[in-house]
Amino acid sequence: MNLVTATAAWLTNPAQWAGQAGIPNRLLEHVLIASISLAIALLLALPAGLAIGHTGRGAAGAAGFANVGRSLPSLAVIAIAIPVTVLIDPVLGGATLPTMVAMVVLAVPPILVNACTGIAEVDRDLVEAGRGMGMRERQILARIEMPVALPVVLGGIRSAAVQVVATATLGAIFGSGGLGRFLVDGIAQNDDGQVFGGVVLVAALAIATEVGVGLLQRLARTPGLRDTGNEPAQGIAPGPPVLGV
């Protein structure tokens, strides 16, 4: 049986679509791990990026922090986090929580950098016009800068989301749930169909995430800027590594 046939046979086997170790449950686990990690990263990075972009203070520090975050291998972060997370929760702390910690570390840099870049690149004439109308700084940020910079901000979120979806598979090495279990278990059982079936599922979820957030990013463009060439550049978020460490 060749690889394509083995993968197709595994994916179409009804037994793989039922039970706790079935595809739907593993997919739900993966989505939950990725979604919670991304939500935490947004809470940490988005307000900071917006504030830095608006005020211009701390930009160098944010860039340095982002570079450090990008340089940390996710697999190493998971391993380092385990001794701490097991103290918080002996059950989840051995695999799921450290995986989420690593995914937050992975997601923060593109969100932070794109939020800062998007706000900073908004036309200063628009900002000064808002100040001239008596708008407060928070109003300028919310009513002028954020609508214009939203596509760039969403670009960082899109990059972070795809990276998290792809890289969360690494948690399975330490016993976490999610689609990575198919890769780890397939290798242990010498089951090529399961290994590559898991790869197909992870790739499909990553592509769906890319397309979904990309569509949201296009819809978020301010109508008046879509065809004028005045939209800010799309930030400097890195491309997502597939199953990277």
Order of helices and strands: HHHHHHHHH
Gyration radius, rounded: 21 Å
Do you know the CATH architecture? Orthogonal Bundle
- What class, by secondary structure content? mainly alpha
CATH fold-level assignment: MetI-like fold
Percentage of helical residues?
A: over 70%
CATH class: Mainly Alpha
Mean pLDDT level:
87
| Strand proportion | under 5%
Cα(first) to Cα(last) distance is 31 Å
* Number of beta-strand segments: 0
The global form is elongated
Number of helices: 9
How many domain modules?
1
Task: State the CATH superfamily name.
Answer: MetI-like
Report the biggest beta sheet as strand number plus sense, adding barrel if it closes.
Answer: none
**Which residues sit in consecutive blocks of at least 5 with pLDDT less than 50?**
227-245
Describe this structure in words.
By secondary structure, the chain is mostly helical. It has a single domain, classed as MetI-like fold. Helices cover 71% and strands 0% of the residues. It has nine helices and no strands. Helix 4 crosses helix 5, helix 5 (96-120) packs across helix 7 and helix 7 runs antiparallel to helix 9. The protein is elongated and about 70 Å long.
